[in-house]
Amino acid sequence: VTARAESVDAVLRERELDALLVADPMNLRWLTGFTGSNGAAVVGPGIRRFLTAVRYPVQSREQVPEEWGEAEIATDLLARAAEGGLPGRLGFADDHLTVKHHARLAQLVGDDVELVAAGGIVEELRLVKTPEEIELIRATAKIADEAFTEVVLEGGIVGRTERDVALDLEVAMRRRGAEGVSFPPIVAAGEHGALPHASPRDVPIPADTLVVIDFGAQKDGYASDCTRTVATGDVDARDRAVYALVLHAQLEALAAVGPGPLGREVDAIARQIIDEAGHAEHFGHGLGHGVGLDVHEEPRLSKQGDTALQAGHVVTVEPGVYLPGQVGVRIEDLVAVTEDGHEVLSSLPKELTTVG
Ligand code: ZN
Ligand code: ZN
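Above: inputs. Below: predicted complex with zinc ion.
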């Protein structure tokens, strides 16, 4: 965590900022280790201040390293930050701080401090994960995979409602140590699977159809994300063909994940395969996204993805084909970019698997 504050210092020096005000909970957690929702930090070369609301002093003492000094306790963190003295050029997260808070901060600091829009500095640094962070994400993915194996592959889902299976997945992940889910699981059978963001219904899952199951755990703050599409018996030639197409696109795009290519270049590999099969309009989302403390973060693997992949990025590779009113297939792996390629963090089988 010490190295993280120093990496922020380095960016601030480059941008000729004296300090950065950090208040977004995920950015604050990354920077200081603090897991509470109400805190702030002022960080910069030679500056380490940590502020938190009254109810957190014990938690912050345990979590926040000594270099941050004694936590400054206040109910009004902005007022406290200003009172404690702020340097001449202070960066603030223009992508997080509301206009209202910004106006208030400007009033509090007066003319002596220049507020400079500096959103994205911490997010940018968060993109490249340390080996320790990747280990945490790997452990989170393992919990999710084990829950899926227990609930879906071993337990069987035919005749159970989508909602019941989703709840079971959540409980199974928590039982294995997850703090929670990284997002509410998606369980969508048959034509319902054609909605990429389907909510589980109180409808029994029939035999002989495809079921899209998208799920992830949250542990030690880090998220996982995985999708498998399973068959509940015999599925017809159309369903098998769609599955084979998505799997082919997934494997080809996955093979390209490594340091170097832009997000949009990896996206294009899967998109071209799906386009050429005549399903261009049936793959309406990006190929993937970064995963870390946040389940959806940079870099994006999409048509707009202009970040070059580099070692330490953790991304998903999740092409899908959705035939409205008929069926949907999505296959998603969580992947860490390594110096010489990638490591797939999802361990579940990808060949079409039939469950009871
Ligand atoms: Zn997912
Ligand atoms: Zn995803």
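Residues 275 and 281 are 8 Å apart (CA to CA).
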